[in-house]
């Protein structure tokens, strides 16, 4: 076959052949609304030939509405930095994250009852967790919402005057994080972020008299929430 005949055959029957033969009519109105598939394709052809902008924005001055703003969003960035000695090394964070992940995998592969309680039974939850360590068989009875609510109660009670988390409170927080399900709901994500920022604020207010060991629980929770729960903008 002659090369020119082959090219002609490919153009007529091959991949170069037009699927739909659509062209712009002489009376084409670019401002009209397409009513058929053919008219829609005509608008596509027009936009392609005219090289219309992919994005069009309105150049408006909205400053006159500033006085009506009632909601202000706080930045997630912690303004005050902690002393250098309180920031954990990458190696320490990697090991902490590995231990946390291994425990989660173990718990996920352990038979446990289906959670059926939406509220903790204690009138003074904060006082209870300060005095009693967490029990696996007890925490698993509570729903995700109940565990998140407990974490929020702890976060609300924390202030920058706290020098450290008590061992029992820290153990409860760690246990809750181990049992939290992914992906996070928006409410759960918000509470985790607020708790992480509280930990960062407390750590930033620790003075040089505080030992590194006393700051490690704060760094541990910052590490787990930021890296395991993908809140990387809050990581060290």
TrEMBL record:
The protein's UniProt keywords, in alphabetical order, are: Cytoplasm, mRNA processing, mRNA splicing
Membrane keyword on record: no
* Location(s), subcellular: Cytoplasm
Q: Per the record, what is one GO cellular component?
A: spliceosomal complex
Q: Name one Pfam family in it.
A: SIP1
Q: Which domain of life is it from?
A: Eukaryota
Query: In which broad location class does this protein mainly occur, judging by the first location in its UniProt entry?
Result: cytoplasm
Q: Main role?
A: The SMN complex catalyzes the assembly of small nuclear ribonucleoproteins (snRNPs), the building blocks of the spliceosome, and thereby plays an important role in the splicing of cellular pre-mRNAs.
Q: Which family does it belong to?
A: Belongs to the gemin-2 family.
- Oligomer and partners: Part of the core SMN complex.
Report what the protein is called. Answer: Gem-associated protein 2
What species is this protein from?
Answer: Rhynchophorus ferrugineus
């Amino acid at each position: 076959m002659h090369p020119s005949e082959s090219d002609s055959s490919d153009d007529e029957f091959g991949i170069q052949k037009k699927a739909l033969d659509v062209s712009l009519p002489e009376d084409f109105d670019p401002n009209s609304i397409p009513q058929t598939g053919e008219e829609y394709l005509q608008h596509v052809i027009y936009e392609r030939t005219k090289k219309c902008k992919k994005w069009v924005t309105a150049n408006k001055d909205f400053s006159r509405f500033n006085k009506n703003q009632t909601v202000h969003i706080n930045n997630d960035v912690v303004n005050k930095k902690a002393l250098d000695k309180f920031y954990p090394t990458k190696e320490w964070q990697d090991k902490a994250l590995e231990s946390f992940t291994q425990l989660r995998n173990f718990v996920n592969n352990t038979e446990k009852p289906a959670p059926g309680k939406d509220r903790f039974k204690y009138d003074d939850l904060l006082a209870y967790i300060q005095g009693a360590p967490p029990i696996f068989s007890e925490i698993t009875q509570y729903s995700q919402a109940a565990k998140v609510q407990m974490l929020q109660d702890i976060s609300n009670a924390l202030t920058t005057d706290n020098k450290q988390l008590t061992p029992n409170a820290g153990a409860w927080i760690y246990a809750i994080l181990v049992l939290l399900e992914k992906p996070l709901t928006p409410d759960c994500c918000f509470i985790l972020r607020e708790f992480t920022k509280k930990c960062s604020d407390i750590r930033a207010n620790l003075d040089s008299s505080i030992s590194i060991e006393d700051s490690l629980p704060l760094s541990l929770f910052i590490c787990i929430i930021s890296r395991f729960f993908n809140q990387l903008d809050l990581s060290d």
